[in-house]
Amino acid sequence: xxxxxxxxxxxxxxxxxxxxxxxxxxxxxxxxxxxxxxxxxxxxxxxxxxxxxxxxxxxxxxxxxxxxxxxxxxxxxxxxxxxxxxxxxxxxxxxxxxxxxxxxxxxxxxxxxxxxxxxxxxxxxxxxxxxxxxxxxxxxxxxxxxxxxxxxxxxxxxxxxxxxxxxxxxxxxxxxxxxxxxxxxxxxxxxxxxxxxxxxxxxxxxxxxxxxxxxxxxxxxxxxxxxxxxxxxxxxxxxxxxxxxxxxxxxxxxxxxxxxxxxxxxxxxxxxxxxxxxxxxxxxxxxxxxxxxxxxxxxxxxxxxxxxxxxxxxxxxxxxxxxxxxxxxxxxxxxxxxxxxxxxxxxxxxxxxxxxxxxxxxxxxxxxxxxxxxxxxxxxxxxxxxxxxxxxxxxxxxxxxxxxxxxxxxxxxxxxxxxxxxxxxxxxxxxxxxxxxxxxxxxxxxxxxxxxxxxxxxxxxxxxxxxxxxxxxxxxxxxxxxxxxxxxxxxxxxxxxxxxxxxxxxxxxxxxxxxxxxxxxxxxxxxxxxxxxxxxxxxxxxxxxxxxxxxxxxxxxxxxxxxxxxxxxxxxxxxxxxxxxxxxxxxxxxxxxxxxxxxxxxxxxxxxxxxx
Length: 612
Ligand SMILES: [Zn+2]
Description:
Layout: H1 2-19, H2 27-40, H3 45-48, E1 60-62, E2 72-73, H4 76-92, E3 100-106, E4 109-113, E5 118-120, E6 126-128, H5 132-136, E7 139-140, E8 147-153, H6 155-162, H7 169-178, H8 184-191, E9 195-199, E10 206-208, H9 210-215, H10 217-226, E11 232-239, H11 242-248, E12 258-261, E13 266-279, E14 284-296, E15 299-305, H12 309-315, E16 322-327, E17 334-340, E18 359-361, E19 364-366, H13 373-387, H14 395-403, H15 409-413, H16 417-422, H17 427-442, E20 445-446, H18 447-452, H19 461-468, H20 481-485, H21 492-504, H22 506-514, E21 519-520, H23 525-529, E22 539-543, H24 551-560, E23 564-566, E24 575-578, H25 584-592, E25 596-599, H26 600-608
Parallel strand pairs: 2-12, 7-9, 20-21, 22-23, 22-24, 24-25
Antiparallel strand pairs: 1-6, 3-10, 3-11, 4-5, 4-8, 8-9, 11-12, 13-14, 13-16, 14-15, 14-19, 16-17, 18-19
Helix pairs in contact: 1-2, 13-14
Residues 279, 351, 353-354, 356, 367, 369, 372, 374 line the site of zinc ion.
């Protein structure tokens, strides 16, 4: 009995931390504890209560119908049992054509919007009035009054701008809803229009029979996941037929006609040998665990990133710690949970590269020295990686150059073959390095890559492309924050940060422009809008293997003709251009959405027609 009490206390504490946006353990770990409780005390009231959530100083709202949790399936077997239960229920009431719908499972903060009141889920029965989220600038996707959904932040934006500040996007969203004042990061994300309330009805979905669902589960999950730029943790499958839903009903915890499918990657256990500290381009010091080599999904894993220093401190990671690592899809292995803490936890006080005392910023340790050699190495490495048109400049080579005082792009590009030899590089490597520099200038490179390569903060590849569609590269250094702010997707703070960053690299920018890189221009929107081709202003998805050239080249060509190139089919897509080996689910979806489907040959014929 004592064990059960302790377990429930623990679960309540974890729950509370999760709701406050500061989770103490991973979701999988939490779910495992819940399963443990179900094992030893299947009737415990905790299992039948929806996890509570508390917002101080907010008005309580009773939901017209309870907002329940979702039952979870981790294995094929659990999913197939769910499908059998649905089929049996349908049989009981004589429904023959049973259809299922699958949607991505958003990992945000659940809420219900009736058009007037916007309430958080709370304990499922009673939530909190959180309409102030809309006043703060959270965008209701599809408009107000569309029912139940979740507040989420765009994932690509989070990864580009916030991943170094927050451990999970949800933590940031909870902060936006819970607090009266927004911190700078939240204000910027909202200003840039990246924080949304997404009603479930507005999500992409898959529909099909029980057999189709069970046979293609992995494909369906992958397809849906690809089409959503929000944090998600699996998908939700539910039966569509209303009669079946009514007949199946709900427990006090979840609806019986719905299940969450979580694809849990393969995991392995290993021991930490040591923790190394890597200095990033912007001065963040990232801990990397060297582990006893272990086989995971066919790869021999030796290193696992620990994301940030806060985790090392909190979880007790160091020599001898036992950890579980996970790898799902092609994702690099990451830490899943700590099985056994270490007694030797070492947090560096000084930068491993330049010995500057480190500062804590949230959970991150930072070196604030702009002249830190490791940061310079990373910035030069970022340049070559982002341009992506020349090899040979790996981090070890760059380190040797920086150690010899070749610590700016100008100095690197001034190097002759003999200069490399003098620094001790062999004759072949010296020739390769010199040639690579010439190649990087003479091989075509898109202007947005060139711009993003400078590593200005808030100016990654995506934002560079957007910016250059409005302002030509050569005019950019002279542009004002107001000019940038006038562009959709750039808020006030971001715009100021960009102009400040551009000012900082002004001299290098001019010097690099003078070297005569072969820069391919992004077509200006103003020019594109005066174009008149069959695809100007249309949204196109290219899929499958193309035969007449690479898919990237076709995408670039379409952009030049003023088309919007999308990565996945949505309700806004006009054309789906199919190369070889296109999966049936993509075609099925395009057909359902009324998208025009064409072959690669049809496409080229269409854009070659003189009068469209
Ligand atoms: Zn440093």
